[in-house]
Amino acid sequence: MKKVGIIMGSDSDLPVVEKAINTLKEYGVPYEVHVYSAHRTPVPAAEFSKNARANGFGAIIAAAGMAAHLAGAIAANTTLPVIGIPVKSACLDGMDALLSTVQMPSGIPVATVAINGAATAALIAIQILAVEDKELAGKLDDARAKAAAAVLEKNKAVEEKYN
Ligand code: RP5
């Protein structure tokens, strides 16, 4: 199976990024985690991205806060799918990172998830790998069915109480 690369701009992003790591673990998807910053360590970030396809990656998740250029900088150097996580920092409630990540120029796509949406980012990466992997697609179907059953259980409890 292809690996998922998880890149974050700072180790201070880890509390958010861990949700992506845990989701990939749940699905048994191989991954690598790195701290590379678009601004502080631009060369390693670019090198990782340029070599990612040859190194067995199928998708890259890039998480950063503030003036969050990391996902765009990664996307500039690869045609692998790049999923951006805008990380909420102390200022502006994460809107700075959201707009920096989502407003890419045409031709260099970054699939941007919600502010701090790390689990969703991992699920998108898993869905990308599942296009060519029936077993993984089956795990996604099972998880959806379980989530739907849990909601229906809650619905039943609410209906019994109020109707
Ligand atoms: C961004 O700046 C990082 O992704 C992080 O979210 C933010 C703050 O980084 P630190 O100053 O905590 O290292 O580049």
Tell me about this structure.
By secondary structure, the protein is of the alpha/beta class. It has two domains: 3-132, Rossmann fold (3-Layer(aba) Sandwich), CATH 3.40.50.1970; 134-163. It has six helices and five strands, in the order βαβαβαβαβαα. The protein has helices at residues 14-26, 42-51, 70-75, 95-102, 118-130, 134-162; strands spanning 3-8, 31-35, 57-65, 82-87, 111-112. A five-stranded parallel beta sheet has the order 2-1-3-4-5. The longest helix has 29 residues, at 134-162. The radius of gyration is 17 Å and the shape is globular. The model has no long low-confidence stretch (mean pLDDT 98).
- Low-confidence segments: none
What order do the helices and strands follow?
EHEHEHEHEHH
What's the CATH architecture of the largest domain?
A: 3-Layer(aba) Sandwich
> Quick one: how many beta strands?
5
Give Rg in angstroms: 17 Å
Portion of residues in helices? 40-55%
Approximate shape: globular
- CATH-derived topology of the largest domain: Rossmann fold
Q: What's the CATH class label of the largest domain? A: Alpha Beta
Mean pLDDT over the full residue set? 98
Search tags:
alpha/beta; 163 residues; binds 5-O-phosphono-beta-D-ribofuranose; 5-stranded parallel beta sheet; 48% helix; globular
Give the structure's gist in a few sentences.
The chain has 163 residues and is an alpha/beta fold. α1 (14-26) runs parallel beside α5 and α5 crosses α6 (134-162). The chain has helices spanning 14-26, 42-51, 70-75, 95-102, 118-130, 134-162; strands at residues 3-8, 31-35, 57-65, 82-87, 111-112.
